[in-house]
Amino acid sequence: MGAASRKEPFRYVMNQPIDCWLELPAGSTGPGAGKQTEGVLIDLSRSGCKVRSSLNLRFTSKDTRLIIHFKLNENMLRFTGSVRWGWMYGLGEYQYGVRLDLTAEEEEILTSELDLWTMSSGEEDS
Q: Do the beta carbons of residue 89 and residue 52 sit within 8 Å?
């Protein structure tokens, strides 16, 4: 199958960023472990997302775990992922690329939520 026959978008870009909450798993080291920090979801795909927040992960390796909480439609979603890259975005703001580590059930939920969100908002970028 070539790219021209792809029926689903690679990435959903939010024209208006969606509020989200970022959480370091309770077993993590560093400030903020187990607590939620406000952020915004910039884009989202079935395999990952881009988020922006005041949370400074002091990103040094590709094994930083992160839990992302957000609502596309009616349901609050909660997915765990691995931070793949990060940098300072502005004064006190950081942007991160996160690879989502989804179970088959979570992938179904996300696909369904994205389909519903796309139908109601029309926001996608192939």
A: yes
